[in-house]
From TrEMBL:
Keyword Disulfide bond: yes
PROSITE patterns named among the record's database cross-references: ASX_HYDROXYL, EGF_3
Stated name of the protein: EGF-like domain-containing protein
Residues covered by the EGF-like domain: 98-137
Keyword Transport: no
InterPro entries, A to Z: EGF (IPR000742), EGF-like_Ca-bd_dom (IPR001881), EGF-type_Asp/Asn_hydroxyl_site (IPR000152), NELL2-like_EGF (IPR024731), NOTCH1_EGF-like (IPR049883)
């Protein structure tokens, strides 16, 4: 009674059926496939293609982690720590290194009196209390602050300009 040869088994189509005696068999996922069977004591029932091992089979960015999943996509991509998605519609396909633009004034165009706040994708500027924001572009506040006080510290003395 050959269960494997007759096709009377529940092995995944990407698994090999191995006879283990009369009315007994074992399923083993073929090379290049990952065993994702729901029951650990019954392997080879769900085999997923290992697309993440072959860079030609996925389009994850070099700074992303590829993970096999069950479904039509076969895999997901996720940007590694220290990187952010440049395209939210296709996660992990275009990862950009996180940069804190507020640490270097050459990387932002905030007014010198404004507070610069780093955000995951960019930065925000905010004029100090008591000043008026006269920035030309309302979608980019804090670029030109009017009436802001600038403070200098000279040998322990505070001078307001």
């Amino acid at each position: 009674n050959q269960l494997c040869e007759s096709g009377r088994h529940d092995c995944d189509k990407n698994a090999q059926c191995i006879e283990r005696g009369t009315n007994d068999y074992e399923c083993v996922c073929k090379p290049g496939f990952l065993d994702r069977s729901p029951l650990p004591h019954r392997p080879g029932r769900k085999c997923l293609e290992r697309v993440c091992l072959d860079d030609t089979k996925h389009d994850c960015h070099a700074a992303a982690v590829c993970q096999e999943v069950d479904g039509p996509e076969k895999y997901t991509c996720k940007c590694r720590d220290g990187y952010v998605d440049a395209n939210k519609n296709k996660p992990g396909r275009e990862c950009r290194e996180l940069v804190n633009e507020c640490l270097d004034s050459s990387l932002n165009d905030c007014d010198p009196a404004a507070t610069c706040r780093d955000t995951p994708d960019s930065y925000e500027c905010e004029c100090p209390i008591g000043s008026r924001d006269i920035s030309k572009d309302p979608s980019k506040p804090g670029r030109n602050c009017f009436g802001a006080s600038y403070h200098l510290y000279l040998e322990g003395y505070r001078v307001t300009l």
